[in-house]
Amino acid sequence: MLSFGKWRKIACVFLACAFCSVSAFSQENSDWYIGKTISQISFEGLRSVKKSEVSGVTGSFIGKPFEDSLYNDILDRLYALGYFEDIEPYAKHDPKSPDKMILVFTVKEHAVISSIEFKGNKKIRNNELKDNVTAKAGDVFLDSAILLDERALRDFYIKKGYSNVRVSYTAEENADGVKVVFHIIEGSGTVITSIKFSGNTVFSERTLKGKISLKEEGFMRDGAFQRASLETDKQTIIAYYLTRGYADARIVDVIQESSINEKKAREEMSLVFIIQEGEQYTFSGLTISGNEIFSTDKLMSFIKLKNGDVFNQTKFQEGLSNLTNLYYENGYMSNEFYPAINKDSERHTIGYSLSIVERSRAHIENIIIKGNTKTKDYVILRELPVKPGDVFSRDKIMAGMRNLYNTQYFSSIVPEPVSGSESNLVDLVITVEEQSTTSLQFGMTFTGIEDPDDFPISLFFKWQNSNLRGLGKTISAGVNASTSDQSVDFSYSQSWLFNKPIQFSESLSLFHSDTSALLANWLASGTLDDDYYYYGYESWGASLSSSVGHRWNPPFAILTVVGGMTNTVTDNLYDQNLYIPIDSGVNKYAERFGLKNSIYASISLDDRDINYDPSTGWFVNQRLAWYGLIPDVEHEFYLRSDTKLESYLKLFDIPVAGGYWNFKAVLAAYTGFSAIFPVPGTLFGSSSKVYIDGMFNGRGWTDIYNDVRGKAMLSNRIELRIPIFTGVIGLDGFFDAVAVKEEPEQMFNDLSIEDFYFSFGPGLRFLVPQFPLHLLFANKFRVKDGDVVWDSKWQFVLSFNMTNK
Q1: Residue 623 host element (H or E)
Q2: Are both 707 and 653 inside the same structural domain?
Q3: 74 and 222: one domain?
Q4: Shared domain check, 385 and 315
Q5: What confidence tier does 585 reach under pLDDT thresholds 50, 70, 90?
Q6: Who has greater pLDDT, 318 or 30?
Q7: CA distances in angstroms from 230 to 199, 214, 277, 463, 790, listed in the order given
Q8: What PROSITE patterns does the annotation carry (predicted)?
Q9: Which one of 49, 56, 652, 724 has the lowest number of neighbouring Cβ atoms within 10 Å?
Q10: What are 457-511's pLDDT values in tens digits?
Q11: What does the alpha-carbon distance between residue 191 and residue 390 come to, in Å, rounded to a whole number?
């Protein structure tokens, strides 16, 4: 039997062994995560920073084995965002897989901006200053960002002529965050009273004045002096000489003389540009070396200057830029280009040799979305024809920007490629600025009714949310009401289904009208008198429409194919013992509910830059609809064809007011042709015919929709569009010409100028998608017997900006 002492020794040895085992086990498991595959990276402590902004940085590390160098790389990238004051990581086991681990970052964000104020500004309003700073309440407070805004405010004042301005800021922490106050000492302004040139023999003083941004004080010009603009204008003058081949031109000096005008409390300045022009040079050619991906002939096709042409520096640089863009557009982001000038001062010639260092294509590593507070990331990402792992393509990215603008969810979209984790990887950062997607549309228009006891105004109201809960779905409800017509409409649509660009829509309309129809009045002679004998009746009904379509994005345009069905139930109420209408479409649905069904298919090609407010491009759509599906139940059977053509041409786009506004004009043209082909031997009512509504076609002709109807209509319009405030309101001029014929074939063999209804005039077009009103003043005329017959007065027309899709 062992003694107590021996038991104590054995126990001590056992405990020592146990301690060593535990220590060894602990040491072995303290770095258990080394080499484990990262299955997830999550964050704790996020308040103002969106999860998408950090997950975009860390997403590429998921699926990689954990190691110290990888961890340091992640940490460096997170700190580089500038959002966090402190970051603490820890690892935990993945409960779904013992071979994987979850990496968690506990972060402490920088304080957020609670408010931004301006003090000391007397001559420039707060709203103007706010437009020139990027920081907003709710943003993460960063000294570096506020310093940039401080500089931006200083630059803005300098552009306004306050060259002695001083701007500083203070930041005060409070319970809500950081209160930022910009302190401004404006100083006095400097105004240019005279600009002259000396030494110019090739170009006149008037021509050179027109090229520079500095202007003398005058009508609609404040004459503000900006020292930075002076340097820019010197380069502008030299660049203008270079476009005419004067490669040795230079500005020798700019003489500045100033004086104080005490009465106006300002400094007044005169400028004299001293120019040395030199000789004119011609182009001696370009040689290219190092290119293997693209042929020399292909690259040379971008250089529009020919040997012997007067050398144009701008034209040559544009060609060189297009040449390099060919590489960038095909994903060769890391190429290097070394143009070397060959200038012969004796022969007055200039040539270039271009050396190209070609490298492999760059691929997109991550796509990071910033700025979206409502719209879900996937709603944005699905509109981009690129994804992580794809070859970087400028054309595809621009196509994605067009898709995003066409959603009308964003007022600004800025794509920016930044360096990825390796030399041939880039991160695509897309910064968006969301706009309101909830709209209230309302208005009124004249109905053109003939009963003097009726109120001749139709009211219109529509509520729509085109980005419901940020999911990219649209829901709307609308009401139309007048003394004779009332309707209630509901609709739902979405442009993506099953993660594919499949569009789907449903709409329901309930309607009622008190209207009239021509009465079949037989005279004693046995002939039918149909001259303006009307009777009144009520019409009730409901219509349900469904559609489904698919969108493709080939390089030349957006291709969309849509099919759908409309089912309508209608009932016309009147005394059949007293009235017999001429229109069979009214008679067949008298005192009983009847069906009207139709199916349609359409195909469109869209090359417009932005579909709701295009500046360039074209659009074409063909729609075929078949009406009448159930024999012996429905009464009208016919085919209707609608063809639409649009084209847009930017006439000019001139920056004015220092680039703060562009004077732009766009010429828009539209042609629409509708034709109806009834089945021989079937009924076809007047209510199914095409007509001039005066609101969307033949604008101004609002009183002829009952009289001028047929089976074919040709509608043309031309508009000159000039935006006044970009994206808000524009000034338009329009000219419409519409013709309606009884039979489609008459459009081709019996159409004359006397068939057309003409209208023209000015208008205001609201460019805000949520307020698509078009206010017009129209004058009308027709041609009869070779003479122009004018309408007696101008007419106000309320229309809407309808986007064809």
Answers
A1: strand 617-627
A2: yes
A3: no
A4: no
A5: low
A6: 318
A7: 18, 7, 19, 51, 55
A8: POTRA (PS51779)
A9: 652
A10: 678 788 999 999 899 999 999 998 887 789 999 999 999 999 899 999 999 999 9
A11: 54
738 and 781 in a common domain:
yes
Dihedral sign of CA atoms 286, 292, 293, 296 in order: positive
Instruction: Quote the pLDDT of residue 15.
Output: 42
> Are the C-beta atoms of 696 and 685 separated by less than 8 Å?
no
Q: Look up residue 4 and give its two tokens.
A: 């107590």
- Between CA 675 and CA 596 the distance in angstroms is 19
Which amino acid is present at 208?
A: L
Assign 359 to helix, strand or coil: coil
Closest CA relative to residue 572, chosen from 630, 635, 628: 635
Tell me the residue range of the domain where 50 lies.
Answer: 31-109
- Could you tell me if 40 and 15 lie in one domain? no
3 in any annotated domain: yes
Burial (Cβ within 10 Å: 0-12, 13-18, ≥19) of residue 504: middle
Q: What is the pLDDT averaged over residues 708-723?
A: 95
> Which two three-digit tokens encode residue 314?
């701008």
For the chain, the distance separating the N- and C-terminal CA atoms, rounded to the nearest angstrom, is 100
For residues 602-618, one letter each, b for 16 or more C-beta atoms within 10 angstroms of the residue's C-beta and e for the rest, the string is: bebebbbbbbebbbebb
Q: In Å, what is the CA distance from 186 to each residue of 156, 165, 192, 216, 263?
A: 11, 5, 18, 22, 18
Q: Longest Cα pair distance anywhere in the chain, in angstroms?
A: 145
Measured in whole angstroms, the distance separating CA 407 from the mean position of its chain's CA atoms is 8
Residue 152: closest CA among 116, 178, 177: 116
- Tokens 């996020």 correspond to 46
Closest CA to 628 of 579, 588, 581, 582: 588
Can you read off the two tokens belonging to residue 130?
Answer: 């706010």
For residue 4, with 0-12 CB atoms within 10 Å meaning exposed, 13-18 middle and 19 or more buried, which class applies?
Answer: exposed
Decide: 403 and 383 in contact? Cβ < 8 Å: yes
Comparing 70-74, 145-149, 182-186, 223-227, the range with the smallest average pLDDT is: 223-227
Same domain for 659 and 766?
Answer: yes
* DSSP letters for 522-535: E-TTS-EE-SS-EE
Kindly state the DSSP code that residue 501 receives in the 8-state scheme.
Answer: S
Q: What is the pLDDT of residues 151-176, one digit of tens each?
A: 999 888 877 778 778 999 999 988 78
Number of structural domains, the chain? Answer: 7
pLDDT at 742: 95
Residue type, 605: L
Looking up tokens 């847009």 gives 648
d(CA 676, CA 694): 20
- pLDDT confidence bin for 650, thresholds 50/70/90: very high
The sign one gets for the Cα dihedral 274, 276, 281, 286 is negative
Query: Domain check: are 95 and 120 in the same one?
Result: no
The Cβ of residue 189 has, within 10 Å, a number of other Cβ atoms equal to: 22
Query: CB–CB of 598/630 below 8 Å?
Result: no
What are the residues whose beta carbons fall under 8 Å from the beta carbon of 787, sequence distance 6 or more?
none
Under 8 Å between Cβ of 621 and 611: no
At residue 778, the pLDDT reads 95
Please name the amino acid found at residue 77: R
Task: Please give the model's pTM, rounded to 2 decimal places.
Answer: 0.62
